[in-house]
Amino acid sequence: MRSRFQSSEALKEARLHWLSVCVRTPKDNLCQFLNGLERPAIRILKAPEVGLVMTQGRTHGTGAPFLLGEASMTRCVVSDTDDQGLFGYGQILGRDKELARAIAELDLLAQDMELGPQIDVWIAAWHDELQSMEHAESERVQATRVDFLTLVRGED
After folding, report:
1. Is 109 exposed, middle or buried (0-12, 13-18, 19+ CB in 10 A)?
2. Is residue 3 part of a domain?
3. Per residue in 51-79, pLDDT tens?
4. Residue 55 domain-assigned?
């Protein structure tokens, strides 16, 4: 397995994009895609494990940060078997070990010279689907919005 990225900056940008899409994509879509993919052997460095992460909040969204509480997080780390130095990381909120492993494997395979372009097509399709779902949700919320400055008190 050879990396298709020449610089670490290019890898970082691409990785931020595909991981942000993967964590929002439904688990069934990811697992179905991975099961249908001919993939090389993968070594599990850190099996999926559930832990806690401390979350922060901000007063009024922009003020001083404060510790809000803990949230469950699942993480997994995989590597290629031919020691090319490629690693795949999967971290999600929640306790779904299968999803964390699927994201880690997809992260690793997306870096590959041969499988990467094929995975990019699916990432783009999932991204478009997520964008359309977010747009539909935004329109649904916008339809119920009330503009209080235009309301009339009812007195003539």
Report:
1. buried
2. no
3. 999 999 998 878 889 999 999 999 999 99
4. yes
The domain containing residue 34 runs over which residues?
Answer: 8-141
What amino acid occupies position 110? A
* Bridge partners (DSSP) listed for residue 42: 80
Strand segments, DSSP code E, in 81-137 are 87-93
Q: Can you give 8-23 as a three-state secondary structure string?
A: HHHHHHHHHHHHHHHC
The tally of domains found in the chain comes to: 1
Tokens of residue 62, six digits: 């922009």
Please indicate, yes or no, if residue 149 is contained in any of the structural domains.
Answer: no
The chain-wide mean pLDDT, for the chain, equals: 91
- Of 19, 22, 93, whose CA–CA distance to 52 is shortest? 93
Query: Which amino acid makes up residue 61?
Result: G
Question: pTM higher than 0.70 for the full model?
Answer: yes
